[in-house]
Amino acid sequence: MRGILSFGAYIPRLRLQREAILRSHSWYDASLSAHGRGERAMCNYDEDAITMAVEAARDCLAGHDAPAVDDLLLASTSLPYASRLNASIVAQALNLPEGIGALDIASSQRGATSALIQALRGGATRSALIVASDHRKSKAASAQELLYGDAAGAMLVGEGEIVAEPLALESRTIDMADHYRGAGAATDTYWEERWIREEGHTAQIPQAISAALHQAGLEAAQIDTFCVALPQKGAAQRIAKLAGIAPDRVHDTLAETVGNAGAAHPLLMLAHALHVSAPGQVLMLVAFGQGVDVLILRTTPALAALPRRAGAQGWLARGKAEDNYMKFLVFNDLLPLERGMRAENDKLTPLSVEYRNRKAVHGFIGGRCGHCGTAQWPRSDVCVNPACGATGTQEDLPFADTPARIMSYTADRLAYTPSPPACYGMVQFEGGGRLMMDFTDVDEDELDVGLALRLSFRIKASDSARGYTRYFWKATVADPLENRHGNGNS
Amino acid sequence: MATGIRDKVVILGMGCSHFGERWDRSAENLAVEAFNECLQDAGIDKAQIQAAWLGTGIETQHLGSGGVPLGVALRLPNIPVSRVENFCASGSEALRGAAYAVASGACDFALAFGVEKLKDTGYGGLPQRPRGPLNDIVWPNISAPGSFAQLASAYRAKHGIDARDLKRAIAHVSVKSHANAVRNPKAHLRKSISMDDAINAPMIAEPLGLYDCCGVSDGAACAILTTPDIASGLGKRDLVAIKALQLAVSSGSEAGHDSWDGSYFQTTRVASARAYEEAGIGRPREQIDLLEVHDCFSITELVTMEDMHISAEGRAAQDVLDGFYDADGTIPCQIDGGLKCFGHPIGATGLRMAYEMYLQMLGRAGARQRTDDPTIGVIHNLGGFPWQNVCSVSVLGRYGA
Fold first, then answer.
1. Which tens digits make up the pLDDT trace of A230-273?
2. Is the preceding omega at residue A80 within 30 degrees of 0, hence cis?
3. What is the DSSP string of B219-280?
4. CA separation for the pair B98, B112 (Å, rounded)
5. Is the peptide bond before B345 cis (omega within 30 degrees of 0)?
6. How far is B129 from chain A, CA to nearest CA, in Å?
7. Cβ <8 Å between A436 and B122
8. Is residue A88 classed as helix, strand or coil in its secondary structure?
9. Which chain A residues are Cβ-neighbours of B156 within 8 angstroms?
10. How much is the pLDDT for A488?
């Protein structure tokens, strides 16, 4: 049967305290305090829609065979490239085979749900990995700055041991510019909130829900979990009431812990809901934006047997409260910071070099010597083992999921980094291989020889003069759960 | 069967500029400053020099590439000038090239030159520079202190040394070098510091503070080499000879293979053992009179004392704190102030170390002169990173000793 095979999520570690934002803005706009509760997820300086997509996809594919993906669909409104496939970066980071299809889905808050609907309708037997990720910028002292959050979600769709089957897939497209972001603009523009609520949410969503229930042959009371991906406070409860769904069925919108993750929010919420659902439950997912998408899904017994993953809950638990609003401004390039002459180093990426090394750099694939068995990164013509030195014997060996530890480290205040000090050191992989790497999402006082690490796909450098973003892997504190999964490299 | 370089080549003359922030001097000016002293000391005419080797590290900051800039600066009469670069061992590489030329019989007189002008970047520390297209994609934005600081973390973990105890030992390394440079009129940093100054200085790269880092300097140094017979024929007495010239270069195993633990320099262990063999030194702790090692950072010097097979592994901190390497200790290390305080104009550094050995063996070291008749001196340069580097170990000594 065709349905959802797996789900995953990613939420950046940093959680900006809304109180910290308000402290800076209360002199200017006291009305912002209406949005002052809780925290919002915030990309570190080296995260963007691509890096979060990779993490959510890895979470989704935990325990799955990655090459079983036939199509990769990437939904976001904040992709780094307007021309140059973004999904192919994610595909290479996941080491998906060249035989897949890949597609970017841009500019729609419903992009991920519409892609999910298309994939579930399927027809062919192809499996699709749908990843949604958004890192939306906002003006200082805007409501969006408080309401938005950065995160990603992922769903694997196909035939087989599905964890959720589709009962209804309903879409409608209505050309209402509740908000927009013109091509080339950095931030969103919204029309009056009351108009959006009355003419948008209230007028459009309940109708679509009715149609979906009709399609599934269900009553509203049969919905166990109601996921509404809207940022406005109280919107989910209001729509539930209009649709006849009991208030206690309304799922946590993650507004107080993540914020609204834009195009990623529907899949993030669905991943969050599936993580705590029992088999046989009925979930409804609603996405809004120039129309409405409604999906009704029923979980299957296979849900209980799914390999463990961090999921939205796992990433939520790994959060670190960030009380410094200035970091948010700096990381989002909203402040002309004095970066010093050391930052002026030309970040030109030689594209032919990057392409030639794409498996090593984006895929983090090294080699294993067929003669002595030594694991090494990068894969090279001559084995690194001084006792071997065999030539032309190495096979590809992926390192991204291999547990690792700190062998040596420093916290460097001289080297340029957008978030000083620059922490880096020798990363020793279990089962062999090592590399001098950046650490990220690690506090200076956590650094210690022997600290358990996991790898994370991150922005390595940004060439602001030419608009190119360079990605590579960095080491961060291990999740004890993930560290149990090796890749045969140990 | 190779017989090595021992006593085949002697130093006819040497020169060394003042090191420091030479805002008013170009690299070419500094080269002339060192060369004039050297030529006068050698007592030959410029036209008698038959070949030159020029060592520079970061030539894009000053001279530019190739051998031409030295030929032009010194107005050398169309002789061969080869530019060599091997990180911080570039000066020692120039010495090696010139020494081999004399030893082979190809030249009677060869010039080894090193010069560097680092203080035209606009900021402190070594210049930012490209490291190759793939390295620039994958490496962290490594600074020199950040790379060498990591020795401390691995050394502490391996030997179970408390962070505060190791910080005290490396502070002593710097306090000693500062004290030594006070007595060196050509040194960059001529100011003594206290243990508290060193320990409480602003942090640069954990655990290295400001005083754990060497000076970034402008300067030049050079030597004219010849054979013992020619030097004697020119009336030279008390010849200082080259006893060993060794270089060890990483194969990539430290950076990529599990056999290295991060707490020591693999290449230094190899290069020093080969140099002692070439120089006929069987008991380095007893036979060496003077040491000049590549103290780019205090932790580098401390670890190097073990890799040079002088302190036992895990015992360098104790030897340092005992004053074994002080100016009045058993084997003075950096009696001229070292990279720490004499300064570190990269290409000149190896030749600056040779210059100090040369002065000490000729009794010309002034206020810092050792009075125990130094006979064997060992010079060490380390270029690159602890996990991937070149190491040069040279031995100088009295001819025939």
1. 988 899 999 999 999 999 999 999 999 999 999 999 999 999 99
2. no
3. EEEEEEEE-HHHHHHTT--S-EEEEEEEEEE--SHHHHSTT--SSS-HHHHHHHHHHHHHHT
4. 6
5. no
6. 8
7. no
8. helix
9. 449
10. 38
Query: Running DSSP on this structure, what letter comes out for residue A137?
Result: B
B246 contacts B95 by C-beta, under 8 angstroms: no
User: Any residues with CB less than 8 A from the CB of A236 and at least 6 apart, and which?
Assistant: A226, A228, A230, A250, A251, A253
Q: How far is CA B215 from the centre of its chain?
A: 13
What distance in Å separates the CA atoms of residue A350 and residue B3, rounded to the nearest whole number? 47
Residues B319-336 pLDDT 10s: 999 999 999 999 999 999
Q: Do B149 and A426 touch (CB under 8 A)?
A: no
Q: Do B153 and A341 touch (CB under 8 A)?
A: no
CA separation for the pair B53, B109 (Å, rounded):
12
Using DSSP, state whether A29 is helix, strand or coil: coil
Q: Are A476 and A435 in contact (CB under 8 A)?
A: no
Mutate to test the interface with A, among B155, B206, B210, B303 (most CBs of A within 10 A): B206
**DSSP assignment of B120-167:** TSSSSSSPP----HHHHHHS----HHHHHHHHHHHHHHHHT--HHHHH
Task: Count CB neighbours of B5 within 10 A.
Answer: 23
What is the distance between the alpha carbons of residues B157 and B148, in angstroms, rounded to a whole number?
A: 15
Pairing mode, strands B81-84 and B110-117:
unpaired
CA angle A196–A194–A112, rounded 5-degree value: 25
Q: Would you call B378 helix, strand, or coil by DSSP?
A: strand
Q: Among this protein's residues, is B344 annotated catalytic?
A: yes
The residues facing A172 across adjacent strands are: A292
Residue range B90-120, pLDDT digits in tens: 999 999 999 999 999 999 999 999 999 999 9
| Planar angle of CA A8, A9, A14, nearest 5 degrees | 155
Q: Which residues in B342-398 belong to E strands, given as ranges? A: 376-385, 388-398
d(CA A390, CA A382): 6
State the first-to-last Cα distance of chain A, in angstroms, to the nearest integer. 36
Chain B residues inside the 8 Å CB shell of A413: 203-205
Q: Which two tokens stand for residue B186?
A: 């050509």
Return the structure tokens found at A168. 């209804």
**Residues of chain B falling short of pLDDT 50:** none
CA end-to-end span of chain B, whole Å?
A: 23
Residue A65, pLDDT > 80, answer no
**Predicted pLDDT at A480:** 54
Read off the tokens for A277: 């659902």
Taking the CA of residue A384 and the nearest CA in chain B, the distance in Å comes to 6
Task: Tell me whether residues A410 and B252 touch, CB distance under 8 A.
Answer: no
- Asked whether the predicted pLDDT for residue A142 surpasses 60, the reply is yes
Distance from chain centroid for Cα A483: 20
Sign of CA dihedral A342, A343, A344, A347: positive
Q: What is the pTM of this model?
A: 0.96
Q: What is the mean pLDDT of chain A?
A: 95
**Chains A and B: how many Cβ contacts under 8 Å?**
132
**The pair of three-digit structure tokens given for residue A179, joined into one six-digit string:** 């908000």
pLDDT(A483) > 50: no
Helices (H) and strands (E) in chain B, counts: 15, 11
Which residue from A minimizes the CA distance to B203? A413
Q: Is pLDDT of A122 > 50?
A: yes
Per-residue pLDDT of A195-226, as tens digits, reads 999 999 999 999 999 999 999 999 999 999 99
Question: A484 pLDDT band (50/70/90 cuts)?
Answer: very low
